[in-house]
Please model this.
Amino acid sequence: MCDRVIPIGNCRHLRCCSSCPALLNRDKPEVRPESTPRGISLSSAAPIRILCVEDHPVFREGLATVIASQPDMQLIGFAANGVEAVAEFRRFQPDVTLMDLQLPGSNGTDVLIAIRGEFPRSRIVMLTTSDADGEIQRAMRAGAAAYLLKSMAKDDLLAVIRSAHAGRRHVPAEVAARLAEHLGEDHLTVRELEVLRLIRDGYRNKQIADQLAIAETTVNFHIKNLVAKLEAKDRTHAVTIALRRGLLQM
Model:
């Protein structure tokens, strides 16, 4: 062992240069933390911040448990109705929102429209038990990031949350199949839907004309069109079909 003094910065070792720890590490490359393709350290990447809009306590607790098990996700808030959903979104501005379709006093798609009207870049995943094509089409046209059935597997839900956070849209196969059943059909116009809602509420043609300030002959024209589009037998059957498909709500 040599006894010469080897100065290294503030370190002075009375030992051989070959065994000096400072020298041994001098030429080793710096070890950097593992990075994502974008160069962001995985250890410091912020979790996906999630807002849950759901009024059923059991399902809500289940979602909370699933999300808590994921290191890259964080549940930041709950809302049980449309008013709370808009308020909590403004408060937290989450990365992803899980939105129940059927909320007390409101429709989840209406809440989605309200939020996206104020926050156009919001990423909202619709969760529902309904596979009605009218509901699906309306939600996706309104800008939903995904439309999922509550019966889907946990891993599929987590994958969709990550996909929505990355800016992608998703419709599962069974939901896409429901949409395909009516692909190419003529959509009901806004006026036809208004007439259909009034038929649902028990109005006769003359009363519908008064409500909409149009001629009764025009009402008859709209009813003829909507019955044909829905392939219904009559105005009452048209309402039944529209309810089943989610074009109308009770």
Summary: The chain has a mean pLDDT of 81. The radius of gyration is 29 Å.
